[in-house]
Write a structure and sequence with these properties.
This protein has helices spanning 19-27, 72-90, 108-125, 174-182, 190-201, 207-212, 227-238, 253-256, 262-270, 286-296; strands spanning 8-11, 15-18, 51-61, 93-103, 128-136, 140-150, 165-169, 219-223, 241-245, 276-281, 300-307, 311-315. The chain is α+β, with helices and mostly antiparallel strands. The protein folds into two domains: 8-150, PurM-like, N-terminal domain (60s Ribosomal Protein L30, Chain: A); 165-315, Alpha-Beta Complex (Phosphoribosyl-aminoimidazole Synthetase, Chain A, domain 2). Helix 2 (72-90) runs parallel beside helix 3 and helix 4 packs across helix 9 (262-270).
Amino acid sequence: MLPDIHVILAIGSFFTMNEFDLIRRYFTRATTAAVLGVGDDAALIQVSDGNVLAVSTDMLVNGTHFLPDADPFLLGHKTLAVNLSDMAAMGANPRWATLAIALPNVNEAWLGKFSAGFFALADQHGVELIGGDTTRGPLNLCVTIMGEVPHGKALLRSGAQAGDEIWVSGRLGDAALALAHLQGRAVLSGTEFAACAQALHQPQPRVALGLALRGVANSVIDISDGLLADLGHILEASEVGAQIDLMKIPASLPVSNNFNQPLGLQCVLAGGDDYELCFTAPVARHAEVLRISAKLDLRLTCIGEIVAWQGCIVHDAAGKPLKLESSGYDHFR
């Protein structure tokens, strides 16, 4: 897929690289899972028999989703990881991706590290980059990812039922607390920051979990804007409510030690950037969920239950409902 806009960017005094050179050097590789990849006006893909195509797009904007001095290798990883997380939430097997990138200038060292981080994660999950676009502008990264899921087997937000258990993978709040430290809103020791920073800079998309939850979970969503906000999407789509036990939510010591402070609660309940999965499953599936946890060597924690009435209540350590000021991240608030 060739970009529509041709831009000439200078590198140093004696060398120039045009847009097509940039794509060929840093973002073009042979494809085997696509009928036609990078190099024409459009890519061609063939979905396997019995599958439907799952498609999702996420954009990362400098200053909003990452700091200006972000490590380019880790940024390459995260750019794809946030999209893989959407495939995980759908129970889809990720196959192909396109990348649109706006660059203020061409920095070959930065591009080399960024593309290395992107492709390292792509290779891990068998994803092929089959096209995209480049242009000059403020740093902006946008991936469209495509995957396959058997017809009728996709995991949706709309299937939660009263009596379901509510589960989350991994730990929540680390990324938000690490960001708060970098922004001067929290003070962490070196050890505490190290314990939280990987979740912010190098999230691990739970693709294998999503595949394992087919036929087990009634509803699934990935936690990108905060637990309450994203669980809220399940509750709205399923027309149900929820009760959550704060003390059952899995969190690292730096996060849980701050549960008695507004920032600690904000991080674990509404901080966002976790990229873990939240899902609901019948009580009868409890043992099966635990077997999935053991097989994947991934912590899965039951934190509450779905109820028939509308709304969401979070109970504190004393069993009293918490008064919450925010449910999650919103780009326009």
